[in-house]
Design a protein that fits this description.
With 131 residues, the protein is mostly helical. It is 82% helix and 0% strand.
Amino acid sequence: MQTTSTTQHSPSSVLRVVRLSARILSGLLFLFWGAFFVEHLSWFRSVPTESPPLKVWLLSFLHLTLLIGYALLLKWEKTGSIVLTCSALFFFSFAAGVNAIPFIIVSVFPAMLLAYCWKQERHQQNVNTTL
């Protein structure tokens, strides 16, 4: 008789992997978008006689808020996800033009992964309370 081995992962172990993936991706996106932020700040210093227009300063602030969202997400998942999602929506809506939607989707993907975890945890709690 031949037996087959199937590996079953518990929902909690899958959620741990998804949550860890969200945090790793958040760190990587922090570094990626942070490099652009630093580059833009160095561009400001290259023209010391002229200050950038107000719109550029506001977009830089939104970009910084995006980075803060990634950092917050590592410690406080829900707060970081809210800051990240709001700042990505506003920043890329004004800065990315026709590429706004793909940039937003990629940028908020860590928050989307965490939202999946929260939904699954809530579902599991509901199942446990009905049993």
